Amino acid sequence: MFKTLDDLGSGKRVLVRLDLNSPVEDGIVKDNRRFARHARTVRELVESDHRVVVVAHQGRPGRDSFVSLDQHADLLAEYVESPIAFVDDVYGDRAIDAVRSLGAGEVLMLENVRMCDDELPERSPEEHANSEFVRTLAPEFDCYVDDAYSVAHRSHASIVGFPLVLPAYAGRVMAAEYEANSSIANREFDGPVTMVLGGAKATDVIDVMSALDDEIDHYLLGGIVGELFLRAAGYDVGYDVGDGELYDHQWESNAERIRSLLDDRAARISLPLDLAYEDENNERTECPVDGVSKTQPLLDVGSDTVERYGAIVEESAAVFVKGALGVFEDERFSHGTVALLETIATTDCFSVIGGGDTSRAIELYGLDEGYFSHVSIAGGAYVRALTGQSLPGVEVLARNE
User: Fold this and answer.
1) How far apart are CA 135 and CA 127, in angstroms?
2) 44 backbone φψ class: left, alpha, beta (φ>0; ψ -120 to 50)
3) For the whole model, what pTM was predicted?
4) What domains are defined for the chain?
5) 99-136: buried (b, 16+ CB within 10 Å) or exposed (e) per residue?
6) CB atoms < 10 A from the CB of 7, how many?
7) Nearest to 374 by CA among 353, 349, 346, 344
8) Tens of pLDDT, residues 31-69
9) Shortest CA distance to 323 belongs to which of 179, 228, 223?
10) Distance between CA 286 and CA 300 in Å, rounded?
């Protein structure tokens, strides 16, 4: 599909694109699994005596998370176990001077690439390759390594421009994410394939279900999308209460698609049997769906649902997860998400856990990533891969092969 670090050799000037985008609280950049994952690629490049220059982004202009990458350099250095220099410039004279002064086995991080006007516009690879940013920086390097699968759905300059003007390779994260996230389309499994779908972005989930048909034997629904499907099935749930604005607008946009999916795939779609809410004593209380009258937020699937879903998982050859089944950040309502993840972890199956909230649950509740085949750090790119849409960052690497 594309060349990887195995094809790179040693002793080159390497520009490597990472995705170190992280939560920022009171100006402090928080550590997350992206630093550890990308460190493997950077460490391999260092060990092969490459001169390594990192380009990455943080936030978007106008947001509180749009900050410098100086803290990112320090965080990444801890995982690489090697010093990482930083320059507060992207492709100006100070950046070029710092790049040229780099020695073999040394690492430099450039400033937040989204501080460069050429980066963010969604343009063709050819247009980006001709930008001042790419034309100025590319001559300083022998090759380009893309390790940023989680932004591969973006046609931004640092992602699609450099592979048109430099020999390009996939880093370890890029290669692993592509293989795992495209496995529904590219692999055959000796047994049922199950997809666990939840979270707050119902439209994304419905897009995934619409794109996948014969590939999936069981859909296990929870979260907001689970309630919306229950609403379509005639239950008194799946609408906003109080100040909530999560359900009704998504229902209006997707009601016909939901009804169509229920009609076409009724035998393969499993809906929650019971739901949990916070009672007047601030305790978790469960109620069968046919007894629910929604007067307050419903925050998790219930125990009967977990038992039924777990039995399906245990008979599956492959399980793919996109979205949480409840508000797992509150321990009282973590049972659905965490219990099902624990069942997946102990089942002899191929398992891919989607990025975002679901992968955070693994970290929050101390589950061992090693029990899953792959835990993705991608969000939008994971959804795009599941729905069969193109990923510009992957396409340009394949063209470069």
Assistant:
1) 11
2) alpha
3) 0.88
4) 5-178+392-400 (3.40.50.1260), 184-367 (3.40.50.1260)
5) beebeeebbbbbbbbbbbebbbeebebebbbebebbee
6) 12
7) 353
8) 988 999 999 999 999 999 999 999 999 999 999 999 999
9) 223
10) 9
